[in-house]
Amino acid sequence: MSHYEHFAPYDPHSIEPHWQAAWQEAGADAVRTEGDKPYYYALEMFPYPSGDVHMGHVRNYSIGDVVSRYKRMRGFNVLHPIGWDAFGMPAENAAIKQNSSPAAWTYANIDRQRQSLKRLGFSYDWDRTVITSDVDYYRWGQWIFLKLWEQGLVERKSSPVNWCPSCATVLANEQVLGDGECWRCHSHVQRKELEQWFFKITNYAQELLDDLDKLSGWPERVKQMQANWIGRSTGAEVDFTLCDADGEPTDELITVFTTRPDTLFGCTFFLLAPEHPLVQKLVAGTEQEAEVAEVVAAAASASAVERSKGEREKLGAFTGRYVVNPINDDKVPIWIADYVLMDYGTGAVMAVPSGDQRDFEFARKYGLPIPPVVIPEGEFFFNSLKNQPNRVMFEVLWNEAYDGPGTMVQSGEFTGMPGGKDSEGSAAVIAKLESMGRGRPTINFRLRDWLISRQRYWGNPIPAIHCPNCGIVPVPEADLPVVLPMDIDVTTGETLADRPEFYDVTCPQCGASAHRETDTMDTFTCSSWYYLRYTDPHNTELPFDRAAVDSWMPVDQYIGGIEHAILHLLYSRFFTKALRDVGLLGFDEPFENLLTQGMVKLNGETMSKSKGNVVAPEDMIARFGADALRVYILFMAPPDKDLDWLESGLEGISRFLNRLWRMIFDLVGAACENTFYEGPRDEAAAASASASAALTPEATAAARTVLRERHRVVGKVTEDIERFNFNTAIAAIMELANATGNYLRFAAPPARLADASQHAVDVELAETFIALLAPMAPHWAEELWQNLLGHSDSVHQQDWPAFDPALAAADELELAVQVNGKVRARITVAADAAEDVVQAAALAAVAAYIEGKEPKKLVVVPGKLVSVVV
RNA sequence: GGGGGCGUGGCGGAAUUGGCAUACGCAGUGGACUUAAAAUCCAUCGCCGCAAGGCUUGUGAGUUCGAGUCUCACCGCCCCUACCA
Question: ipTM score of the complex?
């Protein structure tokens, strides 16, 4: 039964809290696993509790909520969980600032964010909440660490790493921005040689690259970014022989990586990175020592900071020593150069100035020879070299290196072969080197192992023990969890390394007194598997049950920001593959479909506290209600595009919900203050009007139109939601509202409501609006569904409205008639009119433009237009 | 330097496979209702033009009966990435 005796205005502030409480009471959003409904896993990237919920969250979670509610109405059992990525630096910084503790700050923020998310009416199964700083969660992170260790995927090694002086911790490569800045605090990152913990993600480099092809539901852009980051290059390792101080070959080899073995004959010098360990040995006590040291020092100080500043002049120095080129026994000088990177390839490079722009510039600067070895087709000037196996020309006449495909010249037995990347010539040179035992084909990746240790307190402790006898030993599984002490006082700079009661332990293998690892794990390790825990969040025996995880995973739709294109998404793909190999799960990729939503900006700028241009969701809810906010943020732009906040747009949506609310009251006859028709304004008058009054012809026509529109719009909205075009889905609902407004103006209530068959259509229209908007404006829809229409069950458990394309089809169509490409007339024909009828009608309509000329061509596009050419 | 994307009214944006460009909304303008305002409703709303008509999807060409959409060149903007050998 309807709760509404009379019209009541739309009041989001009373209905939203009401339904939120009612849904919670009824457990409406708990995941259901019963029945034979197919499973659907809708997931949004979980928030970091760094403050209040912001508009970016509202957008992310509104999209996810529409997807989940829609899929539920389409007959799926939907898993739609939420949690918090709770460990990390900002909590420590905030605690220091507020003289509090990271835990207190974090959990207070989580409470506030949880309230905000509830006020927005998102349909999360709150019982499955995962908070990464809860020991029930992070203990399984430690357990997984041990499993990866057993699998040979954990390594402690010394290497040059990124050190952020401001955060006082090391960072993974992925967490250093392009300009050498820390991803969190934007300080300049320093390079340091340190012993650290790594996950061997490089073991999966090839699979991570190959499987991108399986991800047809991912944006091309994200896949491209990952492919670039993994950075696979095919080429060869080539062994050069080091000469002693007198220039005589020794037994020592220096290996380089090259993608262009075909240019090996053009190698006229050899380069080492300034940090290369050999450099000091080569120059110690020589006359070159001072100059080399100068370049090394310059490179070290410039490294991270200056690298970003455009084209930097290359800097180098001769070491005084030589190597022998294995392909032609040339003796070439060893230089150091600041553009050679220690952590790519081998830190040593064969320089081919005619084929590499950097080498070219270096050679020009230091007067080194630049013999051409691969020349482009049609270069007349070099034709004389085409059959020249020996070197006759030392200087190219280009102003830059040529690195494209071409013909090999001055290259001994290979002269005349096609050269270039992965060319026949390259293969031939590699084969020759291989037969001499001086080279081999190789694949090189840019991807580095993932540095996961952090010298910070607020993180998941690494479960390892340093024993003076046994070396590094894992904490036994039975001793887990290694509990993070909650009473560390970060305001005094205290860390785990200051707590003997934390690190003084006995070795689990030999019983000697030993030292527990005090580093914690990168927070990205926590976010690399939280989506797996959601499938079985209360498991106390395992991180998740294999059957549970396999039944829900992979995630059907993942939604989050593009900023995680590499970091989080690559790490999660790695975790999935590694855990598959541990035997914990049975799939290769975690996220089947990915939607990267755009940012919410204000006047073209990102909203941020420091800029003071933040529009707070809570304020908008207070003024317009959560439903209006949700619909607005879906309406203003397609989800993957950036969106510029405009308050007048939100007012517009608020008006639309109001207008549709009133219209639905009109449709079901509950309105007393109707604004859509000029009929009697009270029920007594309506009742006294003739019950047998018939609908006018205009009203009948309008009724037919609106019913047709109803079927068209349901089809359109369904298709648009499937494609995440929420903005056009809402526009289509608005079109139906406009058509309904028209209809209501013609069809005044006494006649309309007295007509039982028409009244049924009116109710169907009302139900259609409510169902179509239910995923986006859930409270608005529920109030109308239950309290106006009098249903006793939830709108969110209804089936998605059906539509019949046949009923959407008009019986008459208007076609445009073009003459020579210009629209000159419009004709109305029956929808099923034969083509010759249409042609005749079209020619008659544009007779004036043809003026007796014979039409050369006549194209009829069914349902669209007729094109006449004269 | 490399990779990806984009360019449509005053604004956000639409146009599914090459088929009536500017849907839907915002802002604006005029009107009704009101003592008045708000709210609501009606009308109008790409540009030039009194009009007839002409022009219009960054610019220029091309393919086509037909191009916002496809091809080529150019201009402009955004994002990612970067001495990766």
Answer: 0.95
